[in-house]
Specification:
This is Maltose ABC transporter permease. Belongs to the binding-protein-dependent transport system permease family. MalFG subfamily. Keywords: Cell membrane, Membrane, Sugar transport, Transmembrane, Transmembrane helix, Transport. It comes from Natrinema ejinorense. There is one protein chain. The protein has 300 residues and is mainly alpha-helical. The chain has 2 domains: 3-73; 81-294, Orthogonal Bundle (MetI-like fold). Helices cover 75% and strands 0% of the residues. The longest helix has 51 residues, at 3-53. It is globular.
Length: 300
């Protein structure tokens, strides 16, 4: 090996080491930045959690932001579960969510399949209508709320949980049908053709091919429709009376219950219990939800 070849190898090693160091530094910086963002995002949750365990009614103690850990207790949770209106509001929320999810899914799944796999008269107009309701619905929310309140009051339906669930379902159907239809578009038609060649009927194809391959998209739609009935506050607060308050409205009422100050300890415990089902559902459906939102290609 000549001296020039040796020098070339040394230069390549130095350059490679320099690139490795830069790549390592970039990785460390990116990881540090991601951890920093995560800490910032999780800090309010941690703060609310510590507040729910503290004594008194304030978010902050006299000694700082966080209460003394030696004073932590479960009194706020005991009050929420056994002395507040949490249980009644939970039942009301579950009724609304059950109606919202069941009605939405019974329309969204067949509607998405029809729009994705069938060519029928008026299909394009229906698709445009779905996009229209998806994009401009929020802009008409105030006018819709006023008209809705007047209509329900005149019909005597202003304090009805089933009607509220139906309204949430009607609002959730356009977007979620379009979302699931987009996911079904990624399922190769050859899968259906192969099943038909093997002797499967139309309903067999839907049950054995389309629905199993659509599980990620269905999981996303299920989570979204659940959130539509679980989290909504404005319409529920407008139409419902205290005996039918959902958890979202009851949480707001708790914040307004203090004569001179908000009972933040009890509010924090109530808020965490209210948010827990959403976190649990997402935790168990995480893989389906992530793959459903990615809309990746199907493997053959």
């Amino acid at each position: 090996m000549t001296s020039s070849e040796t020098e070339t190898q040394v230069d390549e090693q130095i350059g490679s080491n320099g690139r490795d160091l830069r790549d390592t530094a970039k990785t460390i910086a990116a990881s540090g930045g991601a951890i920093g963002i995560l800490v910032v995002l999780m800090f309010p949750i941690y703060w609310v959690f510590t507040a729910s365990l503290s004594q008194g009614s304030g978010l902050m103690s006299t000694e700082g932001i966080f209460a003394d850990p030696s004073s932590y207790n479960l009194e706020a949770y005991r009050w929420v579960l056994f002395e507040s209106a949490f249980q009644d509001a939970l039942v009301n929320s579950l009724v609304v969510v059950f109606v919202t999810v069941s009605v939405s899914m019974s329309v969204v799944i067949p509607g998405a399949y029809a729009l994705s796999r069938r060519d029928f008269l008026g299909r394009e107009k229906i698709l445009y209508g779905y996009v229209l309701f998806t994009q401009v619905g929020a802009g008409l929310s105030i006018a819709t709320l006023i008209a809705l309140y007047a209509l329900f009051v005149n019909l005597g339906l202003s304090n009805n949980l089933l009607v509220l669930g139906l309204f949430y379902a009607a609002g959730a159907i356009p977007f979620n049908t379009w979302l699931l239809k987009t996911f079904m578009d990624n399922i190769p038609v050859s899968y259906e053709e192969a099943a038909i060649v093997d002797g499967a009927g139309r309903w067999d194809v839907i049950r054995e091919v389309i629905l199993p391959l659509s599980k990620p998209g269905i999981a996303v739609v299920l989570v979204f429709t659940f959130l539509a009935g679980w989290n909504e506050f404005i319409i529920a607060q407008t139409l419902l009376r205290p005996n039918n308050y959902t958890l979202a409205v009851e949480l707001f009422s708790l914040a307004q219950s203090g004569r001179f100050e908000t009972p933040w300890t009890q509010f924090s415990a109530f808020a965490l219990l209210f948010a827990s089902p959403v976190a649990i559902i997402y935790f168990f459906a995480q893989n389906y939800v992530e793959s459903g939102l990615s809309f990746g290609g199907m493997e053959g």
